[in-house]
Amino acid sequence: MTDYSALLDDEVWAFLNESARHYPDDAVGLSIADQRSLYNRMCVAFDQGRPANITVSDVPLGGVHCRVYSPSAPAAATIFFCHGGGFVVGGLDSHDSVCAEFCSITGLRVVAVDYRLSPEHPHPNDFEDAWAAFEAACAAFEGAIVMCGDSAGGNLVAAVTHHARGRIDGRITGQLLIYPGLGGDQSKGSYITHALAPGLTTQDMEFYMNIRSAGQDKYGDPTYAPLHDKDFTNLPTTVIITAECDPLSDDGKDYRDAMLAAGGEAIWINETGLVHAYLRARVMSAKAGASFERMTQSLSALAKAELPKF
Asked: Which is the CATH superfamily of the domain at 4-302?
């Protein structure tokens, strides 16, 4: 059994303890309504507010509720963002300060997508919303688009990127996937080594997957799990950032390897001593803060179709 007392420092433990005060480890056993209520309360507790140098507006894009963050100077590119939450919890407010900081630090516009959630709207409704919003964002905003999402959102933006090939070419210059769940093999690797990781377990992942799939077999559908795609050619420059102590960490490695094998350009950064959902810990943990800086550097580089130089 993995000894997390040796892998995680005091700052990360403080983050986990504070998270558990609002959203307990056994929350997946509660009703969906209660899960959402607790998750929203936790996100409020960690919210950092918005920097003063941006403006924010809620607008429909492709019939999907979205939030647009605009920098004070004209933006050279757009970050297309989908939030995490296991396709069950979360929304525009849960990741509001993250998107606001991405906009403020990079000077890029951010479009955040309020896609429909399971179980009321199981897959492919989430993907259909992300795709509709993406098409509308391409029509509404000129310039490069960088795809970005955390956890479930990383899955969605990668699925949109795969689907865009041959449909909307030349607009996506890069992807930043933050501890994404991409449909990796749960019988090996980090799914086993970190099956009981604090913050997210393999059993938690199975819970979310079963709700999202509505009990149907989705194997082989790249709009459900991008790692199930058979074609990894012609994908944009990609940065995958994962947490060491997370069942999903090997999804990042496997996605990078698939891209490199297909001749693509990708790097995988597995952040030592961090756990799933550490975006919320960026002001509590020096390690999480350093990783957040790598994320913003990656977004700026990917807007130019370049890999970051750390």
From this structure: Alpha/Beta hydrolase fold, catalytic domain (3.40.50.1820)
